[in-house]
Design brief:
By secondary structure, the protein is of the alpha/beta class. Helix content is about 55%, strand content about 10%. The longest helix has about 45 residues.
């Protein structure tokens, strides 16, 4: 049983590593350094409390204060390059204005509402949106890709999600050159993307 409990620590470590990667995308290396420093400090205070019972109230207060300071650190704003999806190098950050411009020009648009911490989004990106057939179809049909990066709960993207009755990501919407937008399922495959968007047709 002891070995089993020790084994369960490894998924926890993997989760911590993934969360650090997400934090790096949000706050850069400064955020990661702060998180690691905070973790070391909190561990040290917890260790002190294990053999200094009389000081435990003070140590608990210090732990709460340290956690509050870490939580209050502001997130960096994403630049346009940070918001780009790995699906295509010419992706643009989402905005209602840009969507309107592209639609007025008669260009098909694919909106990828995603977030750095969204596991489903990352799976769809790797398994479907990076697929060579999907990327090739988007390129051949001149489909514009707008990435709505909701990692930091952007208000404009929240409002966009609400127009489709959603309160979270992922959300995939394809706007044909003419006609109503098409909402794709939250779980994607290459064939599903091509079929729903009609880009598989000659």
């Amino acid at each position: 049983m002891v070995h089993f409990r020790q084994l369960l620590a490894f998924p926890m470590l993997a989760t911590a590593a993934w969360l650090l990667l997400v934090l790096m995308q949000i706050n850069g290396m400064g955020g990661v350094a702060l998180a690691l420093s905070g973790a070391i400090g909190l561990s040290f205070l917890a260790w002190l409390g294990s053999f200094l019972p009389a000081r435990r109230p003070l140590i608990v207060l210090m732990l709460a204060l340290a956690a509050f300071i870490i939580a209050r650190q502001p997130a960096h704003e994403h630049s346009g390059s940070e918001a780009k999806s790995a699906m295509a190098m010419d992706a643009e950050p989402f905005s209602d204005a840009r969507l309107g411009e592209l639609r007025a020009a008669g260009r098909p648009v694919f909106v990828d509402a995603t977030a750095a911490w969204c596991i489903t989004c990352k799976l769809n990106e790797h398994l479907a949106l990076r697929d060579a057939a999907v990327v090739g179809a988007f390129h051949d049909r001149h489909v514009a890709l707008l990435v709505a990066d909701w990692t930091n709960r952007d208000d404009a993207i929240t409002a966009y999600l609400a127009t489709f009755g959603r309160n979270g990501v992922p959300l995939y919407v394809f706007y044909p050159s003419q006609g109503a937008p098409i909402v794709l399922p939250q779980l994607l495959t290459p064939s599903l993307v091509l079929d729903r968007t009609g880009l598989h047709q000659d």
